[in-house]
């Protein structure tokens, strides 16, 4: 049986122990109708380990990409991220063969975010960072966020670009329609389509900004089989090649060299085939998106039964994650 390391697996602070947050925009709950079950796993690490044992998951790379990083004042965001990362570090130390982690960063305060990334990696033993969505409606290629990526490159740790909550105005303009219910529109605007498209655009911004020319060893991770981007690599090369971009290489060369994609629980063979064809086996990772998705037996069985060579299965199942996140 192939060793399984899943790399987009989430946790939250117990709400009773969380730092106070400021007022936030009304949002759609991404936890869905089984929110109570999701919350149990988000806050209970022993229950999480029971699930992992039952479904043959050797290790999870844990992260919290949610609201505390951008909620409230700058001071509150910094305090929340430190609290999240301290808890994460403590759980990794309790179970070093079962858990690794990605740091939460106060991205609205970029210099503090870079400092927190350094603390998380050098003092807490965390393996990289995660950023969820836009930074208060700003894409991350804007120059004020460069210190975060510069620190990741300096430390040689990856940053996982996770979808964030699509803004209410965007949901209503792009996804709501009088021809179907608002509930359908909200679901399409989030997990069905919208937040994946937004995160794909985030990646476009970063690559076209020339960030990989400035930081050639920077490594980014993109979930959900690359948030649409791998499906358009040849077309992006064609049409960005028609106008000066000031990039040293083709768009696809940066993407294939510096970006890793994960399944995020989307265990479907056509998407896996395309990701492997576009990215090569060395840049594909396994992930369940737990506990928002709980694929149970599929986590191990889909990979074990996939029509791929055993060496490719081993890379996807654990080898690439061990190398990228330095898990050995």
Task: Give me a quick take on this structure.
The chain is built from 15 helices and 9 strands. The protein has 328 residues and is α/β, with parallel strands linked by helices.
Task: Write structural notes for this entry.
The two termini are 19 Å apart. The chain has helices at 35-43, 45-54, 74-94, 110-122, 146-155, 168-174, 182-192, 194-208, 211-214, 224-227, 233-240, 251-258, 269-279, 298-305, 310-324; strands at residues 5-10, 59-63, 99-101, 103-104, 129-132, 159-162, 220-222, 259-262, 284-285. It has 328 residues and is an alpha/beta fold. It is built from 15 helices and nine strands.
Task: Examine the coordinates and then state which fold CATH places here, giving the name of the CATH topology.
Answer: TIM Barrel
Instruction: Determine the fraction of residues in helical runs and give it as a percent range.
Output: 40-55%
Strand content: 5-15%
Q: Which descriptor suits the 3D outline?
A: globular
Q: What is the ordering of alpha helices and beta strands?
A: EHHEHEEHEHEHHHHEHHHEHEHH
Number of helices: 15
CATH class term = Alpha Beta
- How many independent structural domains? 1
Low-confidence stretches: 20-26
Describe the sheet with the most strands: 6 strands, parallel
Radius of gyration: 19 Å
State the fourth-level CATH superfamily.
Answer: Metal-dependent hydrolases
């Amino acid at each position: 049986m192939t060793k399984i390391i899943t790399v987009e697996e989430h946790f939250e602070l117990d709400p009773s122990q969380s730092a106070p947050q400021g007022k936030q925009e009304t949002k759609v709950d991404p936890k869905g109708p089984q929110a109570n079950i999701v919350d149990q796993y988000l806050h209970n690490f022993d229950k999480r380990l029971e699930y992992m044992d039952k479904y043959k998951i050797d290790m999870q790379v844990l992260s919290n990409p949610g609201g505390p990083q951008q909620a409230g004042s700058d001071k509150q965001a910094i305090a929340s991220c430190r609290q999240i990362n301290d808890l994460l570090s403590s759980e990794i130390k309790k179970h070093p063969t079962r858990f690794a982690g990605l740091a939460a960063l106060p991205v609205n305060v970029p210099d503090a975010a870079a400092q927190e990334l350094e603390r998380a990696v050098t003092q807490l033993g965390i393996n990289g960072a995660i950023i969820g969505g836009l930074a208060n409606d700003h894409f991350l290629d804007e120059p004020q966020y460069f210190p975060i990526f510069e620190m990741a490159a300096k430390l040689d740790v990856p940053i996982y670009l996770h979808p964030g909550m699509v803004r209410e105005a965007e949901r209503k303009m792009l996804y709501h329609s009088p021809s179907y219910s608002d509930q359908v529109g909200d679901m399409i605007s989030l997990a069905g389509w919208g937040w994946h498209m937004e995160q794909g655009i985030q990646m476009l911004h970063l690559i076209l900004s020339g960030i990989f020319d400035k930081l050639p060893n920077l490594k980014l991770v993109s979930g959900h089989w690359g948030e649409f981007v791998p499906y358009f690599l040849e077309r992006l090369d064609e049409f960005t090649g028609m106008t000066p971009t000031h990039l040293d290489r083709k768009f696809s060369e940066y993407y294939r060299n510096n970006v890793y994609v994960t399944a995020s629980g989307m265990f479907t063979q056509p998407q896996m085939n395309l990701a492997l064809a576009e990215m090569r086996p060395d840049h594909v990772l396994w992930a369940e998106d737990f506990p928002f998705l709980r694929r149970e037996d599929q986590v191990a069985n889909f990979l074990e039964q996939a029509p791929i060579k055993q060496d490719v299965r081993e890379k996807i199942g654990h080898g690439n994650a061990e190398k990228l996140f330095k898990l050995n």
